[in-house]
Amino acid sequence: MKDTLAHEASVSKTALMINLGCPKNEVDAEEMLGVLAERGYTICADEDGADVVVVNTCGFIQSAKEEAIEAVLRAVERKRAGRYGRVIVTGCLSQRYGFDLAKELPEVDAFLGAGQMGCIADVADHVLNGEGLIFQVQPQAHHRWLTHVNRVRAGAPWSAYLKISEGCDHTCTFCAIPVMRGRHQSKPLARVIEEARRLCEEGAREINLIAQDSTQYGLDIYQRVMLPELLRRLSEIEEVRWLRLFYCYPSRLTDEVIEAIAGLPKVCAYIDMPLQHSDDELLRRMRRAGNAESYRKLIEKLRTAIPDVALRTTFIVGFPGESIAQFQRLIDFINEIRFDHVGVFEYSAEEGTFAANLANTVSAHEKRQRRNELMKLQQGISLKKNQEWMGRTLTVLIEGCGGPPYLRSAKGNSWRRGRTFRDAPEVDGLTFVRNCDAEPGEMVLVKITGATAYDLIGEPDRRQVKD
Ligand code: SF4
Fold first, then answer.
1. pLDDT tens profile 299-336
2. CATH number of the domain at 159-387, please?
3. Which residues line ligand 1 (CB under 6 A)?
4. Residue minimizing CA distance to atom 6 of ligand 1
5. Which CATH superfamily is domain 393-460 in?
6. Are the C-beta atoms of residues 137 and 94 closer than 8 Å to each other?
């Protein structure tokens, strides 16, 4: 296969993307596919026969690293078997462990560090020319925004992630992301707007703004936080119906940011704000800004300023030294605040982080138990919160056909599934709509008639479609 793969301009080359990890990686993968397509590569989805296979890896926590290594090994095996041409490894794992992986896996043709989407086509051309190992990983992760964007969308056209910044300036003691993604770097405002317009031209109606810390947007390039301005400018795009904000750092949710969210109708009353814990001592050792009291005040402020706001957060259980009493304080906090959505991670020691050297670790068994306990607690809270919506009418973005799998009567093609402003794609629940014939991507008014811990059930409210 090697000889036949030599790069010839006249021969159509195929590229396959295997993407792992978070929405930020998804955006990177789509950008790389765009760069490859512009260079003339045909993007394929077939498992076999691609000339170039890009494995875009995640290295967030231990389980993600294992999954990424497995994917790279699988690609290498396929290459050995003649089913793939060349293998390029990109993303966080490559940034962090590329040097070691290159020694262990000589069959990989190229390693690219995080944030180097722009050179993927050059690298692909070089590896097809059989120019030997290409190792393009900077010691310090450094993101480079593409001069223009031609993303090849992989997901549903009506809902798109838009990365507004990359990297992180915080120093949370458990987190390796700043090492893998570098310091915080904002995407210039004009570029974000251009990208949003382009996504809308391709059918996007829901724009999900992502970053490591979206509340720091603008500080590095404009010397002030520009998130309110960005939200205003994005709201002016006619086709945009929903703007959804992810990864807000609690101490940076300033009055100005809250006012912008509250005052702009297209910005969903939905805030994703990882808190990680609620015990003051643990938060201090995690090196997080804030404490239980400041979180209480912030949440009260959010709920006053933004009626019906849906709050999503994540917590870490089993951080070194987390005592039973500290864990109990977290349980009490969750019971008191009643978040709409909670994600729980079991702490994993990440090489190179401060916390990895801390003693007094919590056993794997105990971490699993604590996680299960929180998830069960949240299920009960989510059920009650969902039930509070019964009888009310909400706008639902329809995403597909089918009723709830647990309802035996929900057969046939008169059911649709979608999401309300309260539910983000992939991580939150769904709304199932009976007697509905709307097409995916349409927004319809739905009267809520039922609720489970994760989902809402309803029927079309035959009034006008609402923004
Ligand atoms: S704010 Fe988030 S990305 Fe940044 S260091 Fe802390 S946990 Fe990691």
1. 999 999 999 999 999 999 999 999 999 999 999 999 99
2. 3.80.30.20
3. 168, 170, 172, 175, 177-178, 212-213, 249
4. 172
5. Nucleic acid-binding proteins (2.40.50.140)
6. yes
